[in-house]
Amino acid sequence: MASQNTEQNWDIFCTVVDNYGDIGVTWRLAKQLAVEHKINVTLWVDDLNSFQHILPQLDPKLVTQTHFGIKINQWSEPLKAGYYAGDVLIEAFACELPAQVKQQLITAKQHYAEDATQPKPPVWLNLEYLSAESWVEGCHGLPSMQTSGLKKYFYFPGFTDKTGGLICEKQLFGQRDVWQADINNRLNLFESLGLQGIKASDTVVSIFSYETASLLALCQLWQHSEQTVHALIPKGRCLNSLVELLPCSVDEISAGSQIKLNNLVIHILPMTDQEGYDKLLWSCDFNIVRGEDSFLRAQWAAKPFIWHIYVQEDDYHLIKLDAFMQLYCNNLPPELANSWKALNLAFNQEQAAETSEHWQQLNLADLPLQQHAKQWPIDAINDVDLVSRLVQFVKNS
Ligand SMILES: Cc1cn([C@H]2C[C@H](O)[C@@H](COP(=O)(O)OP(=O)(O)O[C@H]3O[C@@H](C)[C@H](O)[C@@H](O)[C@H]3O)O2)c(=O)[nH]c1=O
């Protein structure tokens, strides 16, 4: 009961469209709400098998289970675990709430309208996808009146103070700095993942992209690089782009495989939990990431990166990519900004030759590039992270 009890109960509903981004973002959100704001969170997920890839201890057969203090309920219809209206209800990325949940909201509203001592109906929010586009500022926080008479708010993550902010745990940058200050952490991590032969002077790149000819071009280039390049690839979609380099079919490749191609060594990794993936990003010299959540975590890793954006109809993703690149490059020397942007654009447009060319122009040891990667997270977070802004938003609504 929001008005009588300080303990808050929030529900988050998430459908897994494809890949891991939707569940990845909502799982981070749930963990931070629970850990930093002591909120009782119930996360409803329609595909626990996908979820298990990033939370290995999850049992996809269970209707309800608790991990990290968060109740995780299977979302099948009709719901097997009961939904009871709490203080806040978040639908992630415009997923359609079950009819029985909507009915509970209407009932809660009616009861409250008849008797104001009854619990208020939950604050209802739709969590949107992250975009750096300027229109986001105008739409963040807008309410939309539903036919039921209930209000639903649109919550837009973003990079400016007029948006909903970015997911980032309070201790994250401190933990990252401690990790990166000691080279042994990186080498120990590689060892614990079973990666052999990585020397401190080698270049290490993590790769979690979608399929693209640009990736093949980069790997072909790295084969002939002066220094050894280690490509760390969690088993998944991007391997399909490297078929012509692989000694066997993608299906036969398993986590733990190591493929040596002249000066390029490809290591196939198991997927780990999110905390393990963060550490991997902190430990590499360069990260190739995708979607929404790994994209943000690559920024928080304070290392240079390529963002392989999720493709949208009519090339709309290129507009989103451009909006982000403009922001990211604001304080970079123009020549460096141009080559970083050109690399990202070529990679996303599958321009293999241009991707190789722009990679060669980018010097990973370049000090301004590294300094920018370190300063950017501080500027981007803009004082207040998404979860703190969200809690405040709920208080004000
Ligand atoms: C490789 C790896 C990833 N992860 C996590 C990090 C992220 O939370 C998640 C991957 O999510 P993303 O980076 O967002 O990429 P994605 O491609 O998996 O998800 C995408 O899904 C689409 C449906 C959305 O529309 C996109 O915006 C995007 O979110 O997986 C691990 O926890 N361990 C791992 O080993």
From TrEMBL:
Pfam families tied to this protein: EarP
Sorted UniProt keywords: Glycosyltransferase, Transferase
Catalysed reaction, written as an equation: dTDP-beta-L-rhamnose + L-arginyl-[protein] = N(omega)-(alpha-L-rhamnosyl)-L-arginyl-[protein] + dTDP + H(+)
Keyword Glycosyltransferase: yes
Keyword Transferase: yes
Its biological purpose: Protein-arginine rhamnosyltransferase that catalyzes the transfer of a single rhamnose to elongation factor P (EF-P) on 'Lys-32', a modification required for EF-P-dependent rescue of polyproline stalled ribosomes.
Family indicated by similarity: Belongs to the glycosyltransferase 104 family.
Protein name: Protein-arginine rhamnosyltransferase
Organism of provenance: Shewanella sairae
